[in-house]
# Entry
Amino acid sequence: MARTPTGTIHSVATVLAAAKTVTGITNAAEATVSVLAHGYGVGDIVLIFSGWGRLNARAFKVKSVTTDAFVLAKANTSNVELFSPGGGAGSVQKVTTWVDLDRTMNHSSSGGDAKTVNVKFIESDVEIVLNDGFTAVQRTFEMDADMIDTPAYDALKTLSDTDAFTVVRRRAKSGAVSLVPAKVSFNEEETLTEGSAVTVKGTFNAQNISTRYGA
# Structure
């Protein structure tokens, strides 16, 4: 069923717990991550840093747990050509604090599109097109300038000033969720447009692709 953006809540992670060592990650439709006595629970959001580039700097929900391992919902590492067995070790951090971004508007996204390269071999009259990955994802938005000194405004300013890793969570009214690791650029210069609210601008510079979960 189609939905509109109305009612969508954006949040940023302002506190990540201390990193824990990942000793291994399985090749599976939903990867199992080995971390000694991790203490995580079902539904926690974690940020993975992995020797697998396609999994590095990705955010996921924890689907199930045992004492020394947990499953990442929708983390498909089953392709051993893309995820070399034994190569996924690294670290993981749990998001412990979220701040909702109130009174934002004009959200837009760019990037995530396929990149291509045109190639023509000397013996051929016709070019061919090769896939060459995807463009970087960037999200922009505006915030009511009078949100200054609120938790949301302060969170964006601090994340921007420190160039810290965060996770951006987007929750639709339907219950659908998307997660993307990002760094924040926050521009406090006021935009004054006749007939419109005075705003400041923010940008989320994604550090990998989004992970999406249905309602």
User: Anything to note?
Assistant: The chain is about 5% helix and 50% strand. Helices lie at 151-162. The mean pLDDT is 94. The CA atoms of residues 27 and 79 lie 7 Å apart.
